[in-house]
Every structure is written in structure tokens, then in C-alpha cells.
Amino acid sequence: MLLPALRIVVTGGAGFIGANLCARLATAGHEVTVLDDLSTGDAQNLHGIAARLHVGSILDPAALDQVCDGADAIVHLAAIGSVPRSVAHPMPTLAANAAGTAEVLEAARRHGNLHVVFSGSSSVYGANPELPKHEGLLPQPVSPYGASKLAAEAYALAWAHTYNLPVLAFRFFNVFGPLQSPEHAYAAVIPRFVDAALAGRPLTVHGDGQQSRDFTFVHTVTAVIEDALVRRVTSSTPVNLAFGGRVTLLHLAAELGSLLGRQLDVVHEPARAGDVRHSQAANDRLAALFPTATAVPLRDGLQATIDWMRTRA
Ligand SMILES: NC(=O)c1ccc[n+]([C@@H]2O[C@H](COP(=O)([O-])OP(=O)(O)OC[C@H]3O[C@@H](n4cnc5c(N)ncnc54)[C@H](O)[C@@H]3O)[C@@H](O)[C@H]2O)c1
């Protein structure tokens, strides 16, 4: 059966997850419009993808009105998305992530109660030591970034309750894959590791390397988001978008070395403020809402990331 194409706005669509999502949605025949201020995103990420790019900020209601006119749904990914950046610059993070989300929700309301899929973060669990992280845990963010994502999620769920807005608030866990830049000062660990390994440099680990993460390949995330849009999935509570893997940074370095066929040197630097120690998702809610969702295995995702990184050299 052919499903009708949707008109989808992707805020932050020129970023890492956004451009991967736009590629998937456009290939599936959906009409995709991106709103991105290109602060960390890059128009080049959308090269060859049938998506319309509108350069502007989610903090600008007029820009939101332009892209939301006639839309069916919004995937809200735009954010200042880094813990260390939020530690250095807390107020811009608060504005873009918390107030910006409220602007997106208001735009969804103005345009006929559009379906909103929100990209929350595992960083909201913060200092809560319980593992795995299930959505009923007390959130205890330990960085301005985590606090801003918690505020944004609370706005999204409150707007759903107050205004009957159809909302699905995901919590992503360490997403990685092609288009994730290793370059900027606040780059995530997998692109940094892959970039260093391919260049023959040692891998830099902050702290002892025993901290663990639930790494999720980006195509796993975009497949679930597409399904959520097509089936118009909503939830009155947040939903972890991860599958319960738990990998230490030292294990990650070893896995990368095994894929590249050589042992990689690791250098340790002091642990960073705002970083959480362990992260691993409980995925019962995800499984209930998306019974057919499966995760791309870490090794396959790492290989795809290596392949992409090699094409940029
Ligand atoms: N990558 C992860 O592991 C991860 C984990 C948890 C949550 N998230 C969330 O997923 C979303 C996407 O993350 P990403 O990794 O693709 O980051 P990214 O930085 O690559 O993408 C964010 C995009 O938002 C844009 N943007 C920032 N401020 C904006 C504004 N005011 N108006 C319009 N556009 C703006 C940036 O230019 C960029 O293109 C973010 O909301 C992030 O908080 C990501």
C-alpha cells in the first residue's frame, strides 16, 4: 500500500541528525522543508537531497510561520547541542533550546496543531545513578545543556496537555554516524576517535575511559522518526530512543582498532565538567510504541562512519 506523502518541517535539518533524516524522508517521497540558522549545521549536508532550506532561526516566529504554512508535521531538532558548549555559554543554550522549543510549539499551534516530534536528550538523567535509565526516573541534569533539554521537553509535554497538541518527545542517547563533524571544539566522541585513528593520532579520552554510553547509529534514529511521522505516534510521557547497549570508551577504542586492524593508542586527559558517568537506556516504552524497530549493531554503524570519514579526506 502506498502511504500519502507528508509535508514535513525539520528544524535543525542542516545538522548531523537532521540531514540524515531529510535524506531518508525525501527518498521516501515526503516533502521536506528545513529551518536552520546554520550555526553548527552546514547547507552542504543537504547537497543532493530534495529538501528546501530556509535559513533562519526558530527564535523568529515569522521564519517559523513561513516554513510551517501548509505543513503536516514538525521534527524539532534545532538546538545548541553540546554539553561543553553549554558550560562555556549557558545563556545562548537556554534561549535556543528552551525558549526556541516553546516558539516551535506555538508555531505548531498557529498552523492547525501540527504533529511535533521533539529531540530530547539522555542528558536529562544526569546525576541519577540508576541504570538502565527508564523514563520514570527523577531527572537530575548536571549541565546547562541537560537542564535546557529538560525544560524543552517539559514545554513540549505541557503544550500537548494544555492545547491538545499531538507531541512525541524522544530522548536520544549518543547518536553517531555519517555527517557528524569531528572538527569543532565540542565534537562528540565517535567522530573524534575515528578522525584521530584515520590520521594516525592517539585517541583522547577524558577521564579513565570506563565511562559508558548507549551509542545509537543515526539510521536507527531516523527510521524510528519516520515511522513516528507516518503513524502519527504521540505519547504523554517522554520516550527513550535507544536500545540498551552499554559500551565504555575504552571498549569503543578497542572495537575501532579491531575494525581498522591495528591497536590504537589512547591518551587520557582530565574528566570534563558536566559529563555523566554512565548512560544506558531502558527501551520498554520504545518497544511498546515501535514494536518493529531494531538497532543497527555498533560495529556496522562504526564501519559506516569510518567509510564516510574516509570519503572526506
Ligand atoms: N547527537 C546526539 O547524540 C544527540 C543526543 C541527544 C539529543 N540530541 C538532540 O538532537 C538534535 C540534533 O542534534 P545533532 O547532533 O544533529 O546536532 P547539530 O548541531 O548537528 O544540529 C543542530 C542543528 O540546529 C541548528 N540550530 C541551532 N540553533 C538554531 C536556531 N536557533 N534556529 C535554527 N536552527 C538552529 C544548527 O545549525 C544545526 O544544524 C538536537 O536537538 C540535540 O539536542 C542529539
What does this structure look like?
- The protein contains 10 helices and 13 strands.
- It has about 325 residues and is α/β, with parallel strands linked by helices.
- The chain has a domain at about 5-175 and about 215-245 and about 280-295: Rossmann fold (3-Layer(aba) Sandwich).
- Strand 1, helix 1 (about 15-25) and strand 2 form a beta-alpha-beta unit.
- The longest helix has 21 residues, at about 90-110.
- The chain is globular.
- The mean pLDDT is about 95.
- Bound molecules: nicotinamide-adenine-dinucleotide (NAD).
- Nicotinamide-adenine-dinucleotide binds near residues 39, 59 and 121.
Shape: globular
Give the amount of beta strand, in percent: 15-25%
Query: What are the low-pLDDT stretches, counting only 5+ consecutive residues below 50?
Result: none
The DSSP helix count reads 10
Strand neighbour order, sheet with most strands: 3-2-1-4-5-6-11
CATH superfamily of the domain at 7-175 and 217-244 and 281-295: NAD(P)-binding Rossmann-like Domain
The set of bound ligands, ions and cofactors reads:
nicotinamide-adenine-dinucleotide
* CATH topology label of the domain at 7-175 and 217-244 and 281-295: Rossmann fold
**Main pleated sheet:** 7 strands, parallel
Query: In CATH terms, what is the architecture of the domain at 7-175 and 217-244 and 281-295?
Result: 3-Layer(aba) Sandwich
Taking all Cα atoms into account, the compactness measure Rg is 19 Å
Number of strands: 13
How far apart, in Å, are the first and last alpha carbons?
42 Å
What value does the average pLDDT take? 96
Order of helices and strands: EHEEHEHHEHEEHEEEHEEHEHH
Structural class: alpha/beta
